[in-house]
Write a structure and sequence with these properties.
single chain; FAD/NAD(P)-binding domain; Polyamine Oxidase, Chain A, domain 2; 3 domains; 7-stranded mixed beta sheet; globular; binds flavin-adenine dinucleotide
Length: 464
């Protein structure tokens, strides 16, 4: 490296920032001085795996979608090819008892009225209302709210028990206040034709037998650890355990707490990015500050062998719809969902999620959390849940909430940032791991292009 090599910083060591650093390191091939700045003593952000009941059990994300290729590509680029898939056990919804999800759903939108009726998840009246979707006229989508669109097409019951339950659990959201355009599968259905059911039927791909999700059997934390090892090997400097305090754009470069860099990828949560940019990009900062985020608590339990009702052994877990929620929003039967999460003594691991946007759990202490989990899950399953081990993980503000017209807000943020600062991360273009990886890689490529560093001939540095 010569002393004229460009200096690039990545702020934030979650999966978005790590993916950006990897893309920068592979793309510059030693022609740049790259530093990753992370406030905590560990990298990975909200991805964390730790030992529970003798097994590597995730405290946050436990898998990622294969459909968006970025996470798979990065995993391959860092040598993680040994990925596993869920067992294929199906999910249920708790409405006074566990009821199986109907077959053939497209993110909660039914494609078969017969299987909707057969599941008994929705009342005959609710099913009849859903059928009205076939004849109702189309309406505008200017509201950009999932709840408004789904209620108008399929009625409130299908909204509550299917779409809000599914999408709400993925985003910790209240889908009445969540952007339709920001959930591509639903947006495609809303724009693809008048009837949601017919459009879902038309666009649903026949099952290929390919798994939908992938995960490292050693936990998602091993993916972020593998990226760290690779970027260190490629010469990225890791500066962890010190929070960045201020980012200032100066004369075609950028100063981070007084240290000069040619460009920065900012991969921190929106509320942090807003604070860091307060003085140098006040318009972007106030737009970033308006992005709200919801917190959840993830409680992991081990229960003795044979203590759950036999009907649970075929289920990967269940969702609790908003109309029935007290604190618990979803329960994953991790030992049924994943073959590698079965303790040798036959006990079962459960991952229980509490809280969402509008169902705040911040004030719940550990004793109350444990009591609520045991009471609510015992009620749902109709048995006494008596855990032999419990782990409580708090994720305050971990789920950015994409309010209606989020896309326009993000465009205004990106349009008002100085050329030397490029934003990435879950607050912007999707919260799923593959979307975060994609946003980090995209931000890195923008930086490379702006600095005139270009790409290797195949145009995709991360492809192994
Ligand atoms: C409980 C839970 C379950 C989930 N389940 C799934 C799932 O199954 N599948 C899926 O695809 N997605 C899932 N997600 C979503 C996904 O995990 C996240 O959206 C994604 O990991 C966010 O990555 P990120 O890098 O954008 O943000 P973060 O992980 O939040 O990383 C931001 C980083 O910035 C650092 N930072 C903050 N302030 C500063 C500062 N001042 N200076 C320097 N660094 C700073 C933070 O410490 C952090 O490391 C889940 C999320 C949670 C919370």
């Amino acid at each position: 490296m010569t002393r004229h090599d460009p200096r690039i910083a990545v702020v934030g060591g979650g999966i978005s920032g790590l993916s950006a650093a990897l893309e920068l390191a592979l793309g510059t091939e030693g022609r740049a001085d790259i530093a990753l700045l992370e406030s905590q003593e560990r990298t990975g952000g909200v991805i964390r795996t730790s030992e529970f009941a003798g097994l590597p059990v995730d405290e946050g994300a436990d898998a990622f979608l294969r459909r968006v290729p970025d996470a798979l590509e990065v995993a391959a680029a860092v040598g993680m090819r040994d990925l596993t898939a869920p067992t294929g056990a199906s999910a249920a919804v708790w409405v006074d008892r566990l009821r199986p999800l109907p077959e053939g759903l497209l993110l909660g939108v039914p494609t078969s009225v017969r299987s909707l009726v057969r599941s008994q998840l929705v009342s005959p009246r609710g099913s009849a209302r859903a059928l009205a979707d076939l004849v109702l006229p189309s309406r505008g989508l200017e509201h950009d709210s999932i709840g408004t669109w789904v209620r108008a097409r399929l009625g409130s019951e299908v909204h509550d028990r299917l779409i809000d339950a599914l999408v709400g659990s993925i985003y910790a959201a209240d889908t009445d206040r969540f952007s339709l355009a920001s959930v591509p599968q639903l947006d495609g259905l809303a724009r693809g034709g008048r009837s949601a059911i017919l459009t879902a039927l038309r666009t649903r791909r026949p099952p290929t037998g390919e798994p939908i999700f992938a995960a490292p059997p050693t936990g998602m934390g091993s993916l972020t650890d593998a990226i760290v090892s690779r970027i260190v090997e490629l010469g990225v400097t890791m500066r962890i355990g010190r929070a960045v305090d201020r980012i200032q754009a100066v004369d075609g470069s950028v100063e981070i707490d007084g240290e000069r860099f040619d460009a920065v990828v900012l991969a921190t949560p929106a509320r942090v990015s807003a604070r860091l940019l307060e003085t140098s990009a006040p318009t972007a900062a106030s737009a970033l500050a308006s992005i709200e985020a919801a917190g959840v608590i993830m409680v992991t339990l081990a229960v003795p062998a044979g203590s759950l009702p036999p009907s649970c052994s075929d289920l990967s877990g269940y969702l609790v719809p908003k109309s029935r929620q007290r604190s618990v929003t979803a329960v994953s039967f991790a030992s049924s969902k994943w073959a590698h999460l079965r303790p040798a003594d036959g006990s079962q691991i459960l991952r229980v999620s509490l809280g969402r946007d509008g169902l705040d759990m911040d004030d719940l202490d550990d004793d109350d959390t444990q009591t609520r989990v045991i009471d609510e899950v015992s009620l749902h399953l109709g048995c006494d849940v008596a855990p032999t081990a419990t782990r409580i993980t708090r994720w305050p503000g971990a789920f950015p909430q994409y309010r209606p017209h989020h896309g326009a807000l993000v465009a205004s943020i990106e349009g008002s940032l100085p050329q030397t600062i490029v934003a990435a991360g879950a607050s912007l273009h999707g919260i799923g791991v593959p979307s975060c990886v994609a946003s980090g890689r995209r931000a890195a490529r923008t930086v490379l292009e702006r600095l005139g560093l270009g790409h290797p001939p195949n145009g995709d540095p991360v492809r192994p």
